[in-house]
Amino acid sequence: MQTVGQLKGLGQKSSEMLAKIGIDPAGQLRTADVFDVYARLHQVMPNVPLNMLYALIGAQENLPWQHIKNERKTEMLLRLDNMGLAPKRK
Q1: Helix (H, G, I), strand (E, B) or coil at 41
Q2: Which of 14, 35, 49, 66 is most deeply packed, by most CB within 10 A?
Q3: Three-state secondary structure call for residue 16
Q4: DSSP state of 7
Q5: Distance CA 79, CA 11 (A)
């Protein structure tokens, strides 16, 4: 059985974060709505970085998180804004 930490772009720290909300093994993440997962992470860790969302999508799609950030950042920020989770501007 594949663990979350074995997915592309996710490691020990990501695995520990996801374990706090009950996500493991990897199959749970593959079928989850990553925005829901990010929202759940945000509830228990309000400072969860936006890079975690990029990494979650990258893990699902087997792509580097940097690719997700470069190609889909605006789309993702709009969805987070609709969810009330968009990062605050400094």
Answers
A1: helix
A2: 14
A3: helix
A4: S
A5: 25
Per DSSP, the three-state class of 69 is: helix
* Tokens at 84, concatenated: 């009330």
| Pair 11, 5: CB distance under 8 Å | yes
First CA to last CA distance, the chain:
42
**Whole-model pTM over 0.85:** yes
Q: Tell me how far apart the alpha carbons of residues 61 and 82 are, in angstroms, rounded to a whole number.
A: 23
Tell me how far CA of residue 45 lies from CA of 30, 42, 50, 70, 90, in angstroms.
21, 5, 12, 25, 20
Q: What is the pLDDT of residues 25-66, one digit of tens each?
A: 899 999 999 999 999 999 999 999 999 999 999 999 999 999
DSSP symbol at 25: S
